[in-house]
């Protein structure tokens, strides 16, 4: 077994823009669920809206920063539309609404009615919206190596995309740390643990929930931009399975923690790559096809996550006391 090649692939997966995008989406979900107790089951909808907002605005001629602002605005408006009718309700209504709304966004994206803007089920090709981002690069043309990893400095799968993606994640972690240690963040934790007690203290619980939903949704929209920078915007690639993966990343690293989403994303995708690469080396293609290896790898990751939930439900970095709250 070629362990050098396998470990190189795992290391590449740890630094991949996709890993960073999931970490950022999980940070937004962490603000929703981990710190506020909101069951958002439609984070993929925020990501898809952010991706479409950025891509469509760029294709229409908007400069990079305006396109990013439009993507963030789309996430904020989407959060407000979801929050207005549901945040005053108790129970799992928000989960039902968000997962349904995310599917509506996906179906609208692949509909032929908006084919001129969204590209329908085929989506939007990467070459149509990446130019403004690539023009911001200060890296010289050519290739660079970092240890065993070698990538082009610029392009879709490049060091430039990786540098920007992980820089955004670092800024998001810093902002989350500052917010959750502020009086505003302490109110969110109070809402998570006992909403009625916070309301009795004169706090506007509805307003705080809405603020949390909007901020976490904007993080999801920004994650959608990072997710599509190395690829195209394809609605079916950002469906229910994406929300499941984001939740997996969050629960693996630990909800209500600062670095949990980042650690969870790196462990999840690193382990997934390790399993797939190892099976390709061990199992001959005559017996198990590449498609079956993907499915077996997903099943093994699922089993590992089941064991984690059973024996360490708070996640790797989580505190078990943080789980002692009533989800509203």
Can you describe this structure?
There is one protein chain. With 328 residues, the protein is mainly alpha-helical. The chain is built from 14 helices and two strands. It has one domain (3-139, 151-323): ABC transporter involved in vitamin B12 uptake, BtuC. The protein has helices at residues 3-14, 17-34, 43-59, 64-86, 93-110, 115-118, 131-134, 159-180, 183-193, 195-200, 205-228, 240-253, 260-282, 290-311; strands at 143-146, 149-152. The protein has a two-stranded antiparallel sheet. The model has no long low-confidence stretch (mean pLDDT 92).
Instruction: Supply the number of structural domains.
Output: 1
Largest sheet entry:
2 strands, antiparallel
- Mean pLDDT rating: 92
| Cα-atom radius of gyration | 20 Å
Class based on secondary structure composition and strand pairing: mainly alpha
- CATH class category label: Mainly Alpha
Query: Can you count the helices?
Result: 14
Report the principal-axis shape.
globular
Kindly report how far apart the N and C termini lie: 50 Å
Order of helix and strand elements from N to C terminus: HHHHHHHEEHHHHHHH
Q: What order do the strands of the largest sheet run in, or round the barrel if closed? A: 1-2
